[in-house]
Design goal:
- The chain is mainly alpha-helical.
- α4 packs antiparallel against α5 and α5 runs antiparallel to α7.
- The chain is elongated and about 55 Å long.
- The relative contact order is 0.10.
Length: 189
């Protein structure tokens, strides 16, 4: 029975991911989840009490996977500078994923403060990777710089949400240049 329940919960999360990717936050409804999984709508409520609960569970499951993806991208780099670039580009790549965009939109509106804090805590593991790279580069205050860099990534993500793919590439390049070379850009030597 527990295994069946676990499989049903996983099927609901898979359906939620698809709905978010296909139609954004408006597409994630209990009626749509029920239709995608073959469950009665009332049965969906046995697994999740609200749409926010679905999103919180998606974050709990998917954030570690997204973190691992960024870590893997950084791990193949030979030096700290390349790891920082991989971090910025990896974050921006994930932020452009329609599922991530929809989860972020729902999180901002529907999750309570405690749930948002749990998500922020999960994100903070990524900042640790940046702190290490900045320390390796000899930065005087790597923790502060890492937090500021995350602000650049967050801002670039918001700009890229409304951009064409070509514009998003320019935004990513600008974010990388800002992260690695500051406001002076890569021409500074």
């Amino acid at each position: 029975m527990a295994e069946h329940r676990q499989l049903q919960r996983a099927a609901l999360l898979d359906a939620a991911r698809l709905l978010l990717a296909e139609g954004g936050r408006e597409a994630l409804t209990f009626a749509a989840l029920a239709a995608r999984t073959g469950l009665a709508r009332s049965s969906v409520y046995e697994y999740f009490r609200s749409r926010a609960a679905v999103v919180e569970e998606l974050c709990a499951v998917d954030l570690p996977l997204w973190t691992a993806e960024i870590e893997a991208g950084m791990a193949v780099c030979d030096n700290a500078r390349d790891r920082l670039e991989a971090y910025v580009r990896g974050q921006l790549h994930l932020a452009a994923d329609p599922r991530h965009l929809a989860v972020t939109a729902i999180s901002e509106v529907e999750l309570d403060d405690a749930a948002r804090e749990r998500i922020r805590a999960a994100h903070s593991g990524l900042v640790t990777l940046v702190v290490e790279a900045l320390a390796e580069l000899g930065h005087a205050n790597p923790r502060l710089a890492a937090l500021l860099l995350q602000g650049v990534v967050d801002s670039a993500s918001r700009q890229a949400e409304r951009a064409t793919p070509e514009e998003a590439a320019v935004i990513a390049d600008a974010a990388v240049a800002l992260a690695l070379d500051g406001l002076a850009g890569s021409d500074r030597r």
